[in-house]
Amino acid sequence: LARKALNAEGGIDPADLVMMQALVKKMAKRLADRYSRRRNKAQLGHLDVRRTLRRSMAYGGMPFEIVWKTKKVEKPNIVAICDVSKSVAAAAQFLLTFLYSLNEVVDRMEAFAFSGRMISVNDVMDEHKVETAIVEVLKKIGFQQTDYGKSLEDFCDLHLDQIDRHTTVIFLGDARSNYADPRVDLFATIQKRARAMIWLNPEPESYWGQGDSVMQRYLPFCHVAKPCNTLGQLERIIEDVLRTYIPN
Fold this sequence. Notes:
Helices cover 43% and strands 13% of the residues. It is an alpha/beta fold. The protein has one domain (14-39, 71-243): Rossmann fold. The chain starts with 13 loop residues before the first helix and ends in a 5-residue tail after the last helix.
């Protein structure tokens, strides 16, 4: 199941869908536990020799009280922007399930979805189970003709203040905009404000730039751009994102 294509022709079998939803939650829990251990270790830091020696004076110079240098490790701040058009909706559902299952280790999580227009879906995600929230989102904006340019315009007009130097933006989409203006300038504006811009594309890299795909035009403004069409790929990419918040 971890290797099953998320945008398979004909969709995902309902029985597989239930098992995959359970699997993605297990993956997220495992990843959250791993991240928490790394974060705690990083915050502990190294032995503070000077303070340890100073405190040991009270014990005749014997270092009975070890002092560690501590440092604050910020929690991830994530904004997810998801194309929910028909060819990408399943991948968007699993990405949002994964991210919202990391709530214990994420400082802030904001989610937006688009097809012809872009909307915030935070309220939908809060009011519904993650597994069914995508259905509610599709009722609002699904089945419109995909327009990346107009959707980016909506985001910059209404939500650009959600992005700052602490924010990792995860953009999920196939970059197929039906030959409409992709507004690369607006994508670049978001990227300049963000800590990192990561693009997950459910299509194989060999498809990028073919037909109405404008992926090649967005690439210069992505810190990372990877194919992401299985749960296994999704887990590895999200783990890489979390790892960037842990200092070496």
